[in-house]
Amino acid sequence: MIIDDSRAMRSILRRIVTGLDFETTEAEHGQAALDQMNAGVVPDVCLVDWNMPVMDGYTFITQVRANPEWRDVTLMMVTTESEQRNIVRALAAGAHEYVIKPFTPDAIVEKLSLLGLVPAETEQGAWA
Amino acid sequence: MNVLTFFEASPDEADAPTVDDLQAVTEDVWLALVGEDEVLVPRMVPPGTPFDATGVWSSSVTVSGGWAGVVTVELDEGVAQQLSARMLALPEGEPVADGDIADAVGELVNMVGGNVKSLMPGPSVLSLPAVAAGRAAFASDVAEVCRLDLAWRGAPVRICIHVPA
């Protein structure tokens, strides 16, 4: 699930992860993502922006982690928010990985690989 | 014990990023969004010169907290359209809806502004982007402290930082 208020950024991330054979769904803010999850769309991994209207990414992470049924959902922040204290906050709240915009496709693939979500043979160039 | 904090930086260091900082941030963002094949080129524009595009898209974000400032991007309309098309992977020459341009230009300033924020003393908060079809307007109680004039495909791009006067 790609959660970002920018359609353009969702498009960029979608192209990267569909190149890795992920199926995607999208949400324009944290509340829309929670609504989908409550309706039964529970993804393997969420790519989460921080700075969004309605519900920001940090709040979304705390909400997901408050529900034991979603404990297997992997959460990866993809955001311009790069203050050390906020990175620590997000990781402490339950994010597994953190990518700072701007990023390269390689950075996303590398993080997904570290999380065990990308087979080694597709780590390079799959999105090209 | 002698503890160094952000607040011991000289006033100049604490006021605003340098033009070199802003250029590095902008080039990194542009590279990520557009790719390596067409880079931004610096332009020599005298201070006080109005942004010289006929059609303009502008966007800004505000940083508040440990550092306060406004980061603004102004783009020639054609640049804004082409940037949006690149970000959305639309075929070259396909018309781009205004809403898609606003979205892409907003994400551009979000990324530039977020990285500017990371250069300055914190903790700070980044606003959501404000986007307009037209020139940016600035409040009377802010002063420009950093301006970067660039060109992409021969058309102008301007990035500015304003801080409270």
TrEMBL record, chain A:
A Pfam match is Response_reg
Which chain positions lie within coiled-coil regions? none
The record's InterPro entries line, in alphabetical order, gives: Bact_response_regulator, CheY-like_superfamily, Sig_transdc_resp-reg_receiver
Keywords tagged on the record: Phosphoprotein
Q: Where is the Response regulatory domain?
A: 1-116
- Highest taxon of the source? Bacteria
Name assigned to this protein: Response regulator
Species of origin: Nocardioides aromaticivorans
UniProtKB/TrEMBL annotation, chain B:
* Entries under InterPro entries matching the protein: CheC-like_sf (IPR028976), CheX-like_dom (IPR028051)
Any Pfam family the entry gives:
CheX
Q: Which UniProt keywords apply?
A: Chemotaxis
Ranges for domain Chemotaxis phosphatase CheX-like: 59-136
Give GO BP annotations, semicolon-separated. chemotaxis
- UniProt protein name: Chemotaxis protein CheX
Species name: Nocardioides aromaticivorans
For this protein's source organism, the top of the classification is:
Bacteria, Bacillati, Actinomycetota, Actinomycetes, Propionibacteriales
